[in-house]
Amino acid sequence: MKKKPEGHSATGRLARLLTLIDNGDDRGMEALAGRKVTRLPYILGITGAAGVGKSRLLSRILETKAGKVGVLAVDPTHPGSGGALLGDRVRMPRLPAGVFFRSVATRGGAGGLSDKLLDMATAMKGFGMEDVVIETIGIGQDELAVRQAADTVVVVEAPGLGDEVQAMKSSPISIADIVVVNKCDLPGAAASAAVIAETTGVKPILTSALDGDGIPELRTRLAAARKAALKPETKRAADARKFAWRMRSALSGKWAKRFADELPDLPAGAPHQVYAGLQRLTACLPDHVAIAVPDLDAAIRQYEALGFFLERRERFIPEKVDTAFFNVAGFHIELLHPTAPDSPVAKFIAERGGGLHHIAFSVPDAKAAAADFRRRGIETLGAVRPGTRGKQILFLHPKSAARVLLEFCACR
Length: 412
Ligand SMILES: Nc1nc2c(ncn2[C@@H]2O[C@H](COP(=O)(O)OP(=O)(O)OP(=O)(O)O)[C@@H](O)[C@H]2O)c(=O)[nH]1
Ligand SMILES: [Mg+2]
What we know:
By secondary structure, this protein is of the alpha/beta class. It has 2 domains: 10-29 and 39-233, P-loop containing nucleotide triphosphate hydrolases (Rossmann fold), CATH 3.40.50.300; 277-410, Roll (2,3-Dihydroxybiphenyl 1,2-Dioxygenase, domain 1). It has 14 helices and 15 strands. The strands form 2 sheets. It has an 8-stranded mixed sheet with strand order 9-10-11-8-12-15-14-13, with helices on both faces. Strand 10 (321-328) and strand 11 form a beta hairpin. Helix 1 (10-22) packs across helix 2, helix 1 packs antiparallel against helix 5 (113-126) and helix 10 (232-262) packs antiparallel against helix 11. It binds guanosine-5'-triphosphate and magnesium ion. Residues 54-55, 88, 91, 135 line the site of magnesium ion.
């Protein structure tokens, strides 16, 4: 396939933007922010050992796909080289019209691989691609990256990898939504599938990217997975999770840089201490501010008019409140409205007419945070208890924090 020159066309602009992001160049993120993408594309991850037929399967799948699709192929062997791009293009012989292909190097550039993939996928969405496919080799960092970035993960296996049970141990099947045993035109495919079914309880789809066997079944399964992932609630939650995780990563990257800038002359051994400090700092991130409102619908309309994105509404019975969460790039604004006169929020509104109610930070472990406060003699308001969004929450007594109510929340 001939390489098109990167001119002023949309593809040329996208290619340049992807290069900036790939290189960890700040201008990439600035340009990306400028495109104001509010939703991530649907991201399909394809992973599995080298040579199992991921690229060939992908070109099969894409043959019948309508609309623009972006493909990000992670190449661990040739970081950033044109050779890698050409290599994979040769191996993806039937690149259908409307498919934009991009090779991504594992090494080099800034940030983690998953950050890079997510940012690149976001850029593709900014150029009208509703679907992005990520192909990676299923090992270590790549495998982690694809699970973090993708909505659906397909793990591809192939027969003839020698000791099946041994091969299974290093296989990324545990992260799969769909498992495929490709090359079913070769002997041993059914046996491999049987071993997988036995050891993992997941029944793989047998395919041959070469002669097309099993491809319709795979397409059907993929379409079903896509449909489920695009249900508004599911998609919103997945996007929010990715935004939050991306922001966390960006913040810790910034802090890491600041530490490096501000502490240039570290004594031997100190990097470990700095790292430990960083871990503590990044372990406590801003999560949301809560605002008590006498009229929830009116307040929602007001915040929507300000351009904030309403992520979810939830009635929280234990605290007798209705809540509405606005997602601001992973940070949240929570509107609180009492559902009963004896709700603590009702008292707050009666006394002050509403307004800023509390500030919340996320911590890795609420119980550990509570124990830490206790040890340091800092007074809390009650114990750790279940909060909204399935989180565990802990309040500090306002007198412990200059008369502001602080909340600490954790996923566990
Ligand atoms: N017999 C047979 N060969 C296949 C099949 N699918 C792919 N191959 C061959 O296997 C080799 C590797 O295929 P790729 O699609 O490049 O595999 P991949 O998993 O993308 O490889 P990497 O990107 O290098 O990890 C090529 O020579 C393909 O022609 C299949 O279903 N049957
Ligand atoms: Mg490939």
